[in-house]
Amino acid sequence: MTKNNNQYSKPQPTNKTILVDVIPPKTSKEESSQRLDELENLVKTYGGMVVVKVIQKRGMPDYRTYIGKGKLEEILNENKAYKANLLIINNLLKPSQIYNLGETCKKQGIEVWDRIDLILKIFAKHAKSVEAKLQIELAAIKHTGPRIYGLGLELTRQAGGIGTRGLGETNIQIMKRHLKRKEQKIREKLKHYDLVQANHRKQRRNKDLKTISLVGYTNAGKSTLLNALTNKGVYVADELFATLETTVGKLYLPETESIVLLSDTIGFIQDLPPDLIEAFKSTLSEIIDADLLLHVIDLSDPLFESKILVVEEILSELGVAKKDKMYVFNKTDALTSFNKEELEDHFKGFSPIFISAHKKEGLNELIKKLENHLEIAHNTVNS
Known about the structure:
The chain has 383 residues and is α/β, with parallel strands linked by helices. It folds into three domains: 2-122, Rossmann fold, CATH 3.40.50.11060; 128-188; 208-382, 3-Layer(aba) Sandwich (Rossmann fold). It is 50% helix and 16% strand. It has twelve helices and eleven strands. The strands form two sheets. A six-stranded mixed sheet has the order 7-8-6-9-10-11, with helices on both faces. The N and C termini lie far apart (64 Å).
């Protein structure tokens, strides 16, 4: 266990956090460090302050507490010096594991979250539109709902006896029905936004407007690129999940004297909850319906290749893995040098291009490539 002395600006004492990552024994040092660094960045985005970081290597998670009784006692003893009040496990936990951890940790006033809880909290913090807030609420119900059932069953078992057992089961059914009704109402409201988005896409097709969708790992610079190409004025911040809503801007292509639509969508991250992907399906429809995907990659990230794989896996889940793609290597201004020829050869199947969206370098070449690609695709369709 190591103490982390890096404090964020304007630390919030109510979010003093202990981070725990449980990883397989064969996980490399580089990967384990990257996982924990990303979790710390998520905490920073949320507004918390990390006081302790723990990596635990084990073949199988503990059935009751995920991290095991001994490790939990060790963490709580260490915490007496730091007085954290939030424990985040960098994994997806079962409802019973969260409950058992919470029961032990509440003695020190510590709340317990898993990785998905943290991501949902960040999404809730950044959501601005009614649609995004509804999508997050839906994902939260899907994620935390089973915990309510588990809690009811646990209380029933602890109380024992015939009389209390029937009451406990009744309460569980009441909670289930309440959440089911709530979920149905949210889905009905989201149908309206689905229809609006679908109508917009239909109008674009009727006008023969081509659509290019920006995809990529969160904080790769998609919104910065959208702003640089369209002057859309999208909110940009050096933090994870700064943008949730889909934004569409117009891009003028000078050689063909035509306009294409450029859409920016939610950024991806490893272990992105399936419930969250499902909840944001209307937002992600922009990716599914796009004529071309621009996969924006942070070239300054030492682990950019592993993050490319994460994005490709999610695109595969969405059923668009084979859609036309171009790899846009961004943030070249943050590097003193890089092997451009090697990268061009390695990713030649994705028409790689190198830019700095922040410095607006390489954008003319990118636009030319887009024009050539769309013209070739158009000629292929009409041939």
